[in-house]
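Sequence in, structure out. Go.
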Amino acid sequence: MKKRRCYIYTRVSTSMQVEGYSLEAQKERLRKYADFQEMVIVGEYSDEGKSGKSIEGRQEFMQMLRDIEEGKDRVEFVLVYKLSRFGRNAADVLNSLQRMQDFGVNLICVEDGIDSSKDSGKLMISVLSAVAEIERENILVQTMEGRRQKARDGKWNGGFAPYGYKLLNGELEIAEDEAEIIRIIFDKYIHTNMGVNGIAAYLNEHGYKKKKRQNNTLDAFATSFIKGVLDNPIYCGKLAFGRRKTERVPGKRNEFRIVKQDSYILSDGIHEAIISEDDWNLAKQKRNINGVKHEKIHSLEHEHILSGILKCPICGKGMYGNVNRKKKKDGTFYKDYFYYACKHRYYVNGHKCDYRKQWNEEKVNDAVAEVIKKLVNNPKFEAAIRAKINSKIDTGELETEHENLKKQLRQVLGAKNRLGQQMDNLDISDKMYDRKYQDMQDRLNGLYDEIERLESLIDDIVSRKEYIRQQKISEDGVYQYLLYFDKLYDKFTDMEKKEFMNSFVERVDIYEDEQPNGRFLKHIKFKFPVFFDGEEIQELSWDNETTVDSIIVHELGHQLDGLLTIKGVFGGEIGQCGVIRTSAAVKREVLQRIGYFDYIRAERADWMRMGYRGRELNDALEFSKKEFITKHISEYACKNEREFFAECFSEYMTSKNPRKAARIFGEILEEIMEGL
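Output:
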């Protein structure tokens, strides 16, 4: 029988050199226990004259933990004489135990009869956890009370300074270059008829640039920014604390939501105000009147089924539903005319989208519904859909990420607990006591920020897993609808139709104008895969369909790219320093002119506002980049600049109505050819 491998750990303090607790007595007892249990001791660690109040300063103990984490001797157990020898601080004991168990190593306290691999040992860990939780809550309460008091005193509570201010020695000072913008926003809102949308447009159109700070990547002013400024009392010299609170969702264990609070601390700040209190009150009054959603007063049963799903063919943003009502001579109304139109809010090449065409809602809605009906009437569709309904969920990657985050959280919690112990052990008679305590308090606040960040990420992972589960439920529900779509859809109310389309269809793209053959649908992307033409798809496209001719022209595009590269059109002769490949240069210019880089900057800002960072942010941006290029060129064009060049060339040469990107490519290509 293979013997289990173990470490032994012994410790004595200067006041505990008594029989039964001496290092040799402990070692002898542990060796006998290991021999009896048929364990082999592969390492001994001993701290002499070290207190058990904290693991700090116990060099041998820390080395043992490092060896365990590195898998040095592949041990399964650590043997100690009594739990008090392992540590006297509950938080330290719990943290150290967890570090060991993360690497498959359990603790045995010989005299106490504690074995963390058994249920009784787990019970002890649970008790220690409760003690540590009480300690954590006590420190948190003290820290939060300190922050509340700071807010009551009118002092800034940490974090990034709001726009219009800068931090100097921890206090807010006016940043004049930004404060000018704040004053303009309040002036326009109070003294003109402009709303938040109008003010944002005014600033952008008159050359004002938003200073990039923190995680901001865009210098344009958004409506959300204007709202945030108008609703923040910081600008009239006030400090608000506790306006929002994270609360647990009732009936959910690990689901939280941010809730606005009606009651919060509002005190006079020690910082200088940018606007007067009178102006603040005037703006607040207007916000109370205008900052509410308008309710429909007519056509109450009508819903704009594809609102937001239908995309503008110029700027790519969601088109909205609207109604046109004309009066008869007798004062009654004609039948309502419902249509989709672009909001003209998105900028393309520095100018607002100018697409003015209005599309009849009924015509577009019926065309999309007809496409879905043709899909579901496929004889093989039902079998494919039922297989989808019975499929299982794979959350393996999220589970791994969840465990990694929990491990990081345990490490930070351990650091926080150790720091709390150090604060408790400070000598109040030390002349440097106040400075040391403040330094530790600052570090503690930083740890709490990191704990909050990790807890937020963990909550996000839990939410994402739940979302995937709910999405599966939703997906199955949609598939159930699809099985009977042609029988049920016409019986749906407009609201039910809208709910279905929002559950199943991600986007609908149209041509700028109806084609000679009557076609106006260009592309439909579904949220869930469907069965079509013998394969599983998630998109349908009626534009730039692949033919033998287009394949040939695609390959000719590669040859042309190579020829232009040899000619050194963009960088001189081959071999010269700094030569730029023709395909790369063309790709960049095409993307620039169709608004790709502005779009990605906006997407980055949106993803970051949703809390994406690091690898998650990069993955999200890659998705956005691929989505944009796929929409404007093709999915194959995402591969590299050479394929982008060939795909644009193919569409430009073969399509009767090439898209904007292909038309721009053609213009660039003609300029290149004229210069040869």
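Check: The chain has four domains: 4-137, 165-290, 297-542, 548-675. Confidence is low (pLDDT under 50) at residues 15-20, 544-548, 570-580.
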